[in-house]
Amino acid sequence: MARFDPKAAEELARLAAALADLRRRQGLSQAEAGAAVGMTSQAWGLYEAGRRPGLFRPDVQARLTGALDLTPEDLRLALARVGGEPDRAPATGGVEAQGRTFTAAAPPTLRRLQLDDDRLAPWAVSGVVIEYAPGRWPRRDQGCVVETADGRLMVRLYDGADADVVRLRGGAGLTEVETLRRADLRGVHAVVARIDP
Q1: Ramachandran assignment for 65, one of left (phi > 0), alpha (psi -120 to 50 degrees), beta (any other)
Q2: CA 96 to CA 134: how far, in whole Å?
Q3: Secondary structure, 3-state, 162-179
Q4: Is the pLDDT of residue 137 over 60?
Q5: How far apart are CA 121 and CA 173, in angstroms?
Q6: Which residues belong to CATH 2.10.109.10 in the chain?
Q7: Which of the residues 7, 56, 138, 165 could staple to 158 if both were Cys, CB 3.0 to 4.6 A apart?
């Protein structure tokens, strides 16, 4: 079996740490992330531990980030966050392929909000700070921040939407679906992380 040179091993470790960072920010366990792509939590853990060199392959990156409802570009942004950004000027026009690496556009603007109720329980309860991405639409059963036309912010679980309405639910034990007219909303934004104290 061929051995990695130290530089490749270091690059793999940074890429693995970025994958772990993305998973945690999405609020998923290794088992949940692995199940989304048909692998065990142990198999997913090998990628996060840097013990699978396949993590360099674009198809593997697409598969793993897809399980997190993200893209390989998000992995590149996470790589920059965990200290793996190569020494070069930042890109100004998007993402440009350069072999195995990507030069990323500016990271998305994230906002924080402290919860004042338990509507995202058991994932997050009153007093916990969440991070949300303005402009990123949530997937079903994902937490979201709803901005109403009058400027109020509500935190709910996204249930679905059609052309006229958005359907939301509370957290565990709260099964009633709340329907809001799209005309009464400024935006629906996906919750992407829980900031633990």
Answers
A1: alpha
A2: 24
A3: CCCEEEEECCCCCCCEEE
A4: yes
A5: 9
A6: 111-195
A7: 138
